């Protein structure tokens, strides 16, 4: 494996920052640190990078605002603290990003949102739309409605799920250590620094321990597991010290700072195989010869105008098969419309959708990014 930066050729980056960094070890939202990252994010955006921020710190900030010196044990108190603190976090990011001329948006997500196909697709469309409008999304967990996540307090997993969701090239996890060591450096002064490894390498899990501070929760293990999860969609991970001067800019310039955990598979190949492996067919559509040729030969999206018949009872976000007029399966993908809607807009141009459906939505039935051609990958047989 080479030591070349995993940011080489990267365009879309998810940056995750932990509670202790964001709140200066619980002293309160750290304006200077957040200002520093926002300045770097603006420079990256200027250079054409698309960046999504995942920021922890709501509970730590809420505890400070409520005057609580120790982390409450009761779930509803943790949730109340998160609700209070999230106001401060959002306010700080909005202030610092707008000072850099960047528009921002707050997105609160739960793991369940991303496990549900329809919500997954909605969250994905929202985030991609924000990026297309050059708005920087700042994401945290929706702590008010979750139980497990708030107990474990781990936003590293959320960072990885977001990297999968937006098909990021790289997940950068900023923390209070320079990266991964062979053992927790707070406990073992002899611990060796690991600069490069393969994401998903099981030996890394043995090196990583829990959180060393009272503010952070996940520790290094959740970061290593996040890297393993991110690499499933082809994203590499960097774990680096959040206070390293110009850390994001230097990473983008190719400097080998932090621990680089390389993804083995290419982004596109990983996503397509993931779709082929994990998804169950809920229905199918037959398409005319023109649409079949566009998909097969030009790699285009499937537009409803090319759809002749709709089979099954599927919902938006579920996987359906796309078949040629003789029934041969051509592709599989995530549908933007339910079966009932697809029946209404089949054979129609997108200009007619609003009149038929009562609202304007995506022009594609299946966007090419959400579709695999059967000829490209091994897919399990249709039921
Ligand atoms: N092998 C390791 N290498 C580096 N840090 C480790 C390791 N094992 C455990 N840690 C601990 O993980 C901590 C970072 O995790 P955490 O406190 O959850 O941070 P964050 O709030 O940034 O998510 C470090 O401060 C360190 O004490
Ligand atoms: N979502 C919560 C908890 C997240 C959390 O503690 O994660 P991290 O500090 O990244 O290990 C918050 O904003 O306080």
Automatic annotation (TrEMBL):
One of its GO terms (molecular function) is glutamate 5-kinase activity. The keyword ATP-binding applies. PROSITE patterns: GLUTAMATE_5_KINASE (PS00902), PUA (PS50890). SUPFAM superfamilies: Carbamate kinase-like, PUA domain-like. ATP binds at residues 16, 175-176. Its EC number is 2.7.2.11. It is found in: Cytoplasm. It catalyses: L-glutamate + ATP = L-glutamyl 5-phosphate + ADP. It holds the Pfam family AA_kinase. Coiled coil: none annotated. Keywords: Amino-acid biosynthesis, ATP-binding, Cytoplasm, Kinase, Nucleotide-binding, Proline biosynthesis, Transferase. Substrate binds at residues 56, 143, 155. Its main location: cytoplasm. Pathway: Amino-acid biosynthesis; L-proline biosynthesis; L-glutamate 5-semialdehyde from L-glutamate: step 1/2. Residues 283-366 form the PUA domain. PANTHER family: GLUTAMATE 5-KINASE, ISOPENTENYL PHOSPHATE KINASE. Belongs to the glutamate 5-kinase family. Catalyzes the transfer of a phosphate group to glutamate to form L-glutamate 5-phosphate. This is Glutamate 5-kinase. The gene is proB.
